[in-house]
Design a protein that fits this description.
The complex is a heterodimer.
Chain A: H1 3-8, H2 24-44, H3 46-71, H4 82-98, H5 100-111, H6 114-119, H7 127-153, H8 162-190, H9 193-209, H10 222-230, H11 232-245, H12 256-286
Chain B: E1 24-33, E2 37-47, E3 52-56, H1 63-70, E4 78-83, E5 86-87, H2 92-96, E6 99-102, H3 114-124, H4 129-142, H5 158-170, E7 176-180, H6 188-203, E8 207-212, H7 215-221, E9 224-229, E10 232-237, H8 239-244, E11 249-254, H9 260-271, E12 276-277, E13 283-288, H10 292-304, E14 311-315, H11 319-327, H12 336-346, H13 353-356
Parallel strand pairs in B: 3-8, 3-9, 6-7, 7-8
Antiparallel strand pairs in B: 1-2, 1-4, 4-5, 9-10, 11-13, 11-14, 12-13
Helix pairs in contact in B: 3-4, 3-5, 5-6, 9-10
Classes of the chains: A mainly alpha, B alpha/beta.
Chain lengths: ~290, ~375
């Protein structure tokens, strides 16, 4: 048969592989494309935007003005106001409460066939998950910045230095990122959005409340205090507080350096373990 | 392209030479879910380049599983799968660069605009931002979505979403497009639009493998049809070849409910073949190899026992008959007897798409209970 015939019979003339997706550059591009896509979802769905902005500010104002007066008497020495004590803790709480978004987004993509579409494209396999957690990290950075801004307006002042303040902010973001991987794992495991929502709140609620996020742990019953003082949320909240407010706010025997190191170990461990688990659960969820 | 109101006949295509390497080549592929759900059972299949290949089968036959294997989403237990010259199992990424997939649901993002959706997929095919945007505009024009391109998909109709879903893959200029039930659940007008889009695709050199449970869709679009049932390809050929396997014609007799059993005996005796009955059970069909002679033998048989059929018709076999004969099942209208009566007309190969479309209905799982007794 002549060349003409083969063209008529559909021999493709336009196919050109554009780039090798196995390259680092390809992986980064894919990750950024997915990240942008996920960020736009936050910006364009009004209910998400409201959830992400109003809720944290509401928590801040309510806790500050409702509890502030009663609590200010029982604060550890060295803290100028309940606002100063509260805000570092609330960074942790808001990051924790918002983390279920990672699980929700992934389960929605799974159920709508979007993940199948991605998997049939010659893109980086990792980009689906990293693009999701990265977008959630950026969302958290925006939400926590908003909270800090409102915090400054109602009287929050760091008691150490700008560097300490930024260091505390960075730890809060690392915490949000680590938790994103936990939530990704949960979401991919339960697979449906409603179940993901409730399954993610189950561990978050007790961990956030039985901690030093809202109040010092000293007045808790002994058995609870031992748990609260040693669980990761308290360690992370203490590290942020130490960095922003100075060593006086910590318990006797604790140092800012020690708390930061402990927090980083927790965060590194959680991220390492759950990123592996998330990838593994992802593979199983899609096959 | 002709306007959707006047569907053009399928474009003439040059049959690929027999020696040409198939663009999709499947050999001995099996896939089992859990312990004993055998979704694919030793499936082998060749698709020549530049054609529309239709996989036709009832729900649960294995159509979607086969598409998922071909599109690298599922690994089969064994066998060989080659798409566009690439060994899918050994080099899935290479295969992905050459294929496009539109699944059963429109996997497009509602909060993005149509254009943003297509550009994103283009980027993920590995195009530069500029090239992705350029091709996205071309593709959107081709599927007549230019006017809606800057609107969010949340405002689109179901048909527009399906078109966009299909178009998103076109941005990568795939050699093979896999379409899993591309027109299930959309309105008749949108279905026509999608059919034209598929025909347009093939004209420009893309090979299309689609699954469908609409006989009329396979008849209209597919150059070759593979009938799949219980994870196996039970028959394969052009629509005409499949119809020819049933011989000359089909005799269809409608009788009163009380007369069904006796009528079955008569017809079985004449045709020497099993009698298939429609879902309602009062319309019986047999192959009429001798045409009018068979018809007359049947009427004499009925006359002899004093039974008067309500209706007797002799018609050329349709894909409907093929499907029925091969799978022992038939697409069953949702709306009961009235729609059932219309189906015979709608599925007839000679009727226009615009009349047939409204009456074809998906096979429902419930229809398995209506399998005719062998």
């Amino acid at each position: 048969m002549s060349a003409d015939t083969s063209t008529l019979a559909g021999a493709p003339t336009v196919f050109v592989p554009i780039r090798e997706h196995t390259t680092l550059r390809g992986t980064l591009t894919d990750t950024w494309v997915i990240t942008q896509r996920n960020l736009l979802r936050n910006l364009r769905l009004p209910q998400l935007l409201v959830f992400a902005t109003i809720q944290p500010v509401m928590f801040l104002l309510l806790f500050n003005y409702v509890f502030g007066g009663a609590i200010s008497g029982s604060l550890p020495p060295g803290i100028d106001s309940y606002t100063n004590f509260l805000l570092p803790g609330l960074l942790v709480q808001i990051a924790a409460f918002g983390a279920s978004q990672t699980a929700l987004g992934l389960t929605e993509d799974l159920s709508k066939g979007v993940i199948d579409r991605f998997r049939a494209l010659p893109m980086s396999r990792a980009a689906v998950l990293t693009g999701r957690t990265l977008a959630d990290l950026i969302r958290n950075a925006a939400v926590l910045s908003l909270m800090l801004t409102v915090g400054f307006l109602i009287g929050f002042r760091w008691q150490t230095s700008l560097l300490g303040f930024l260091g505390g902010f960075a730890i809060a973001l690392l915490f949000a990122f680590a938790l994103s991987w936990v939530m990704a794992t949960i979401g991919l495991y339960v697979r449906n959005p409603e179940a993901a929502q409730s399954a993610s709140f189950l561990p978050i609620f007790p961990l956030v409340f039985a901690s030093s996020v809202f109040l010092p742990t000293q007045t808790m019953p002994d058995w609870l205090r031992v748990f609260a003082d040693n669980q990761p949320i308290t360690v992370i909240a203490n590290a942020i507080r130490g960095l922003m407010l100075g060593p006086e706010v910590l318990l006797p025997g604790q140092t800012v350096g020690g708390e930061v190191l402990a927090a980083l170990l927790w965060l590194g461990g959680i991220t390492a373990i759950f990123s592996v688990l998330a990838v593994r659960t992802y593979r199983r969820a899609v096959s | 392209m002709p306007s959707p109101d006047t569907p053009a006949p399928a474009p003439e295509r040059v049959e690929p030479p027999g020696t040409e390497r198939p663009i999709v080549r499947v050999r001995g592929v099996s896939k089992t879910f859990g312990k004993d759900v055998r979704a694919l059972d030793d499936v082998s299949l060749d698709v020549a380049p530049g054609i529309v290949y239709g996989l036709l089968g009832p729900n649960g036959a294995g159509k979607t599983t086969l598409i998922r294997v071909l599109a690298t989403l599922l690994r089969p237990e064994g066998g060989d799968v080659e798409v566009a010259g690439v060994d899918v199992l050994a080099d899935p990424t290479g295969a992905r660069a050459r294929i496009g997939l539109a699944g059963q649901f429109a996997a497009v993002d509602e909060y993005l605009t149509g254009r943003e959706n297509v550009v994103m997929v283009g980027r993920l095919y590995g195009l530069s931002g500029r090239e992705a945007r350029r091709r996205a505009d071309d593709v959107l024009e081709r599927i007549k979505l230019t006017d809606a391109a800057t609107r969010r998909v949340g405002t689109y109709s179901g048909g527009m979403r399906r078109r966009l879903d299909l178009a998103a893959s076109l941005v990568g200029r795939p050699q093979v497009m896999f379409l899993d039930e591309p027109t299930t659940g959309i309105d008749p007008r949108s279905r026509l639009d999608l059919w034209e889009l598929v025909e347009d695709l093939v004209e420009t050199g893309t090979t299309v493998l689609l699954t469908t449970q609409y006989l009329e869709e396979a008849d209209r679009l597919a150059d070759r049809i593979g009938v799949i049932d219980d994870g196996r390809i039970v028959s394969e050929g052009t629509a005409d070849e499949l119809k020819d396997t049933l011989g000359g014609a089909v005799l269809e007799v409608t009788v009163a409910p009380d007369d069904v059993a006796r009528s079955r005996e008569i017809l079985g005796g004449i045709a020497g073949d099993e009698v298939a009955s429609a879902a309602a059970g009062t319309r019986l069909r047999v192959p009429a190899r001798d045409g009018v002679v068979t018809l007359m033998a049947a009427t004499r048989g009925f006359d002899a026992i004093g039974l008067q059929p309500l209706d007797v018709a002799l018609h050329k076999p349709t894909l409907d008959d093929v499907f029925l004969a091969l799978t022992g099942d038939r697409p069953e209208p949702v709306e009961g007897e009235a729609a059932e009566a219309a189906t015979g007309v709608g599925l007839d190969a000679t009727s226009g798409p615009s009349t047939g479309m409204a009456t074809t209905s998906p096979t429902t799982p419930a229809s398995s209970g209506d399998r005719p007794a062998a």
